[in-house]
Design brief:
The protein has 627 residues and is α/β, with parallel strands linked by helices. The protein has 18 helices and 25 strands. The protein binds flavin-adenine dinucleotide (FAD).
């Protein structure tokens, strides 16, 4: 494939959309996000393989809101965010939640909060028990290691004070994503381990090695030398941007996958896309790979005629491959943020939002010495079984309600029940503590001099499941298009499964209070500010949880692997091939069959590394059989 030479000033090659469409690639990747750029980089390691990537967003290289760790969150709602929202959620008193997703080269890895962690062994062994061969912990561990370059902390004093502990055998040291312990910590972190220890929670010295249960200090996807975010663009794309066989086109939105039919068999042969108002079709010799994420991979399948026949016919899309699982099985992490008033003398990240001079000084410090508040991420974490957090009677009553839920198919019910067994020792709930107010529903008076801290609480294995589907066609009768935002309905706290989630979250909120009121953390906490102290009974707290729960931005499952039930339970097989279509895979967060306990990005990178390896295995096998 002849390719125009890269421009000297831009990290992306100057290729026009017409030139891109004029190429026939071996592999076409839709979405240059977290997973998409991993697959692109790995496939193009072989110079004989040509790879094209279409990304709807622009390039954000050098953007401070992306690069500077302490500015996490500042790009939400910006041009780098798709700015999705859920449909009204009856379980949340009718509220619609904002659902940010990265619309930029690097996708959501450019927007996320850089937390880098892994779930427990049992989470992946559950995927394998569902019949997804090779997706157990032992199958994924090599890919976690392959993706990361872990940097050992050098400062012995910080290692000791901040408990920078890890199992050296569990981490990767030569992968593309740079991960490290922070050099500076929030003033509250020094109290974290001792406080949890007072509550009977042990420090987990090997939290990346197969169990995340316990208290530990978190890592970040940050380059320790430059102290800038390490994400899929800088880790996987930029080092390989000069490859002649890898072409990325940004600001290019894919409308649908082109499918052709021969004797009843559908094959993906390319995609239709738009760029600067021009419409094009580009062909793929071997495969189209959807890496558009949990919201948009199912959207593109549906727009291409793969999905639930009722959804497609309401949207005016002709049905090609019927599969009612497309867009279903949506599982998200939800979170509540309890706010405490704290000692105002402590350096607080809210200072940078309220005080322009403080923000300028912090920026100056970061620019000149890569130090100060803009290097700090929230790193005080703890994962616990619900049995550690609630009374024995409450636990028993939750377990008996769980036993009454019948919706799950195959092994899924047994797996979900076992997660609640105290002997399973799983991180069903995550707590995170940091200074600053994280609750969008809490709006204190900025002039009263009071300062706040947040105890976040995140449900790791939600029982409720929702869906993401394309909307029906418009009033003018025209077919639904890619620009029509998908209907995101996570069904938070809805129905018997959702109500169980709500009660778990409410019971667990009492423990957030306990954490903040236990010494030594209690020494910096003055009172609970939100919910106010007089919200003390279960029913009142439950109402507060309904009215303040937000997403933790971790949706999965909408193109999940079907395991031993195949198309009856999922969208892709365990080699990530879309059921019923040749030459089409999905590689991103949407393929996870069951939600995991942990933040998602490290796992998405590992999935993409594993997906790329499988694609290359198939490529080599086919070439071998031809030769
Ligand atoms: C605010 C926020 C904070 C988070 N914080 C953390 C954290 O601290 N730690 C952690 O582990 N995880 C975190 N996550 C989650 C994690 O970042 C995501 O789960 C992960 O990045 C998803 O990767 P993906 O490859 O599935 O999708 P994405 O990275 O979103 O990639 C999808 C790509 O496809 C592109 N695309 C979509 N549709 C089209 C189309 N039609 N045509 C062309 N391109 C298209 C998108 O623009 C995007 O670039 C956070 C998420 C959010 C939103």
């Amino acid at each position: 494939m002849a390719r125009p030479s890269p421009s000297s000033s831009l990290p992306l090659p100057c290729i026009s959309s017409a030139e891109f469409a004029g190429c026939t690639f071996d592999y076409l990747i839709v979405g240059g996000g977290t997973a998409g750029l991993v697959v692109a980089a790995r496939l193009s390691e072989d110079p004989a393989i040509t790879v094209g990537v279409l990304e709807a967003g622009s390039v954000g290289i050098g953007e401070p809101g992306i690069d500077v760790p302490g500015l996490y969150g500042s790009t939400l709602g910006s041009k780098y965010d798709w700015q999705f929202a859920t449909v009204p959620q009856p379980g949340l008193a009718g509220r619609c939640l904002p659902w940010p997703r990265g619309k930029v080269l690097g996708g959501t890895s450019a927007l996320n909060f850089m937390t880098w962690n892994r779930p427990s062994r049992q989470d992946f062994d559950a995927w394998e028990r569902l019949g997804n061969v090779g997706w157990g912990w032992d199958g994924l561990l090599p890919f976690y290691k392959k993706t990361e370059a872990f940097h050992h902390p050098l400062d012995n004093q910080s290692k000791h004070e901040n408990k920078l502990l890890y199992d050296p055998d569990a981490v990767g040291t030569s992968g593309p994503v740079q991960i490290c312990y922070a050099t500076e910590y929030s003033p509250s972190h020094v109290f974290w381990h001792a406080t949890l220890s007072s509550l009977g929670v042990e420090t987990n010295e090997a939290h990346l090695a197969g169990s995340n249960v316990g208290v530990w200090t978190n890592l970040g996807s940050v380059d320790p030398d430059s102290l800038v975010r390490s994400y899929s663009t800088t880790a996987y794309y930029l080092p390989n941007a000069s490859r002649q066989n890898l072409v990325v086109l940004t600001d290019a939105t894919v409308n649908e996958v082109v499918l052709s039919e021969h004797e009843g068999q559908w094959t993906a042969t390319g995609v239709r896309f738009q760029h600067e108002g021009q419409h094009h079709t580009v062909l793929a010799n071997r495969e189209v790979i959807l890496s558009a994420g949990t919201v948009q991979s199912p959207q593109l399948l549906e727009l291409s005629g793969i999905g639930n026949a009722d959804v497609l016919s309401r949207a005016g899309v002709p049905v090609k491959v019927e599969n009612p699982n497309v867009g279903e099985h949506l599982q998200d992490h939800i979170m509540v943020a309890t706010i405490f008033e704290v000692d105002p003398s402590l350096a607080n990240p809210d200072d940078l939002k309220l005080d322009k001079a403080a923000a300028t000084a912090a920026q100056e410090l970061y620019n000149t010495s890569k130090s100060g508040p803009l290097t700090i991420l929230p790193n005080s974490v703890c994962y616990l079984p619900v049995s550690h957090v609630v009374s024995k009677e409450t636990h028993e009553s939750l377990v008996s309600r769980l036993a009454g839920l019948t919706e799950y198919a195959g092994n899924e019910k047994a797996i979900r029940n076992q997660r609640f067994d105290p002997s399973a020792k799983l991180g069903q709930i995550e707590y995170m503590f940091d200074l600053g107010n994280w609750n969008p529903a809490f709006t204190p008076d900025p002039s009263d001099g009071k300062k706040y801290a947040t105890c976040l609480q995140m449900l790791q294995y939600p029982y409720s499941k929702g869906s993401i589907h394309i909307p029906p066609k418009g009033p003018d009768g025209s077919q639904t298009r890619v620009s029509d935002k998908p209907l995101i309905d996570p069904k938070y706290y809805y129905g018997p499964h959702g109500e169980l989630d709500l009660d778990i979250m409410t019971h667990c909120a009492f423990f957030a209070d306990k954490i903040a009121k236990t010494k030594p953390l209690a020494d910096i906490v003055r009172r609970r500010a939100f919910p106010p102290e007089d919200v003390s009974g279960f029913e009142d707290l439950r109402d507060w949880v309904v009215n303040t729960t937000i997403t933790d931005w971790h949706p999965v499952g909408t193109c999940r692997m079907g395991g031993s039930l195949g198309i009856r339970a999922g969208v892709v097989d365990d080699r990530l091939r879309v059921y019923g279509v040749r030459g089409l895979r999905v590689v991103d967060a949407s393929i996870m069959p069951l939600q995991i306990s942990g933040h998602l990005q490290a796992t998405v990178y590992a999935i993409a590394e594993k997906g790329a390896e499988m694609i290359l295995e198939d490529y080599k096998r086919d070439r071998g059989s031809v030769m």
